[in-house]
Every structure is written in C-alpha cells, then in structure tokens.
Amino acid sequence: MPEPRQDRAIRTREEIIRAAAEVFDERGYNGASMREIMKRARVTLGAVYFHFPNKEAIAREVMNSQPDSVLPHLTSRGLQQAVDITLVWSRQLQNDVALRAGVRLAVEQSGLDFRDTSSYEGWEKIFEECLLVAHERGELRDHVSPSTMAGFLVGACTGVQLYSELLYRRSDLTQRTVTMWELLVPGVAVAEVAGQIKVSVRRADALAAIST
C-alpha cells in the first residue's frame, strides 16, 4: 500500500532535519550548504526547498529543537528536574547529533548572518518552569528567584560545555555538570531538600538510557 502523502511529507521533513543536523555538526553553519544537506538526506533539492525556504530556516529548526533530545528522558519535578535536565543534556551532547548541532549553531551565532536567541530563551523558560514548581514546593531558599536562577543556569551550562569542548571534546562534561550542582545545591536549596537531590554521573547515564 502506498505511503499517504502527508506521512511521506512528514518523513521527508524529518530526514532533511536529521541530515542538516549531521552537516551542521560537522561543518558549522557557514560550512554547510543546501546541496550537501540534500545529498545527505537523499532527497531532491526541490524537496528541501519545499519544506524550507533557505539554510537559515533549517538552522533555526535544528537550533530550537534541542529540548526534544532531553525532555523525553525526564520523570522528576521541581529542583531535581532542573538538575536532571542538565545531566541528560551533558550526556546527550556526547551522543546525540541533533543536540550537538543545535548547540553548535546557538553558540556560533556571532559568525552567522542572523541572530536567534530563541533557543536560549526556550531553555530559560524550561528551567524557570521547573524552579517555579520547586518554589511552590518549598524547595528553594527564600533569596532564590526562579527566573534569575533560570537565566543563570542557561549561561552556566553554556560556559561549562564550551570549556569542556575546548579542553576534552566534552568527554568530561557530565562530571563538570555534576560538580556545578554540587557547588550550587547547598546555596539554593533548603537544607532538608539539598540532602535529597540526586546528582551523579551514574544518574546521568541512567536517565539518558531511558527510551524515548
């Protein structure tokens, strides 16, 4: 039975995005081309332009899809969920080409023809939602603002992964993320919650292994 046209179009779009992620991960935005993405996706150039008007549109799609590689692995709530987001993210950056490409595009924007802060803003909103739950549950110290901490976490994670990439190609990123939280948790969580927060490389591995 022939594949329905709508299903085929969805599958083609997904293949283009996947191929684009591979090319962006390897070459960056400036080194990628629509023709290379077409070849990697094994579709016609017309099919690529049917779904995306230009390379910038594909890059934005890849850049803003980062949470798709992380959020399906989560089961916790509140402050633990904020921790778990970063643990899964740190591990997936080593294994998930779509996430790596999205992060590379977001970080390298100073050399691009466009600026798009929506991926950073998206992560900030996700963190803020976790931390608002943490606040409602009485997990945070009185001085901790969920919105301020959310913005700080986006910046901290960006810096940690950049440093890890430069030094060790991110091989130590999960441990660095664990260390970050070991330093942060005592200062942001109330004492009875701080002792219950789980943060370890083993937890990162277990969460990343959850089937999506």
TrEMBL record:
Q: What is this protein called?
A: ScbR family autoregulator-binding transcription factor
Q: Which organism is it from?
A: Streptomyces vulcanius
Q: Which domain of life is it from?
A: Bacteria
Transmembrane intervals: none
What keywords tag this UniProt record?
Answer: DNA-binding, Transcription, Transcription regulation
Using the record's annotation, list all stretches that form the HTH tetR-type domain. 10-70
Q: Which residues form a coiled coil?
A: none
Q: Does the keyword Ligase apply?
A: no
The residues that make up the annotated DNA-binding region are: 33-52
What Gene3D superfamilies does the entry give? Tetracycline Repressor, domain 2
Extract the InterPro entries matched here: ArpA-like (IPR047923), DNA-bd_HTH_TetR-type_CS (IPR023772), Homeodomain-like_sf (IPR009057), HTH-type_TetR-like_transc_reg (IPR050109), HTH_TetR (IPR001647), Tet_transcr_reg_TetR-rel_C_sf (IPR036271)
